[in-house]
Amino acid sequence: MAPTTVLRRLPALAAALAGVLVAPLLAPAAAGAAEESQPFGGNVSYSWEIPDAPASGMTSLTMPMRIHTDSDHVDGSYVATQYAFTGQDDIGYMGLQPRKDEDGRARLHGVFSSFIAGTTSTSSTCTEGADGGEGVSCAVDFDAVYGRTYDLEVRRTAANTWSGSVIDSVTGKRHLIGEYTLPAGSGKLRNSQVGFVENYWNYSGTCEGIQRIDATVGRPSTGRLTGRADAPKEYGACLDQANYSSSVHDGAVRISRGWL
């Protein structure tokens, strides 16, 4: 089984992100010789923006995510949103990963990480290190309903401290993924970045057997301001070989890859 707390960087695809100034896309990775031999399944990038957000930065970001019912309930896929800070070059990300059912209950895995040197955390759900270097990685598993929207939220709770949560849009139940503190001067959240939907683990060993992920990333928001997600583009491994499709409607992006 692929581990869930080790991360690696993936190079940004210039063609997919033309005109958008962003840090490299990030994604989880397997560790160990046997696991590294597993083929990587590829990515789909998308962009997001809240154009009317203050130029000085935002103190929160909410990104709705829905893992649709035709997605496989297995490790190996990641729906992520990256975010950047006004006083930093490196970034963070948050998102959802499917998991195997547990005692008949559907499960999801929430992720909240910083790739900024000097980040610290006292949360029990967070560990030191990200991308094989400095940073902090936080994660939590929870009972979930596939086909339901969950709001992924990063919010400033103190001058340089940020929390990451996943919120059930139907019940309002909030799962705290973790909290970390950035170095002084890191600033606030920028109003645009990118995200990705990734098949980071491929049990089949072939492009034709990649596990199914079908997800919608909705309109980003901060306070009462809303923006849009758009510009999906497939790239990397298994390009044009993984049953990829995407659509953009009313500021939301739907992306699917793989087979059940």
Count of separate DSSP helical elements: 1
Radius of gyration, CA atoms, in whole angstroms: 17 Å
Number of domains: 1
Give the proportion of residues in helices.
Answer: under 10%
Characterize the largest beta sheet: strand count, sense, and whether it forms a barrel.
Answer: 8 strands, antiparallel
Q: Helix and strand succession?
A: EEHEEEEEEEEEEEEEEEEE
Distance between the termini: 18 Å
pLDDT < 50 stretches: 1-24, 26-38
By secondary-structure content and strand pairing, the structural class works out as mainly beta
Strand order of the largest sheet: 8-9-7-6-5-13-3-17
CATH topology category name: Jelly Rolls
Q: Care to count the β-strands?
A: 19
Give the rounded overall mean pLDDT.
87
Strand content: over 45%
Tell me the CATH architecture: Sandwich
Q: For this structure, what is the CATH class?
A: Mainly Beta
Can you tell me the overall shape? globular
InterPro entries: DUF3472 (IPR021862)
Signal peptide: 1-33
Keywords: Signal
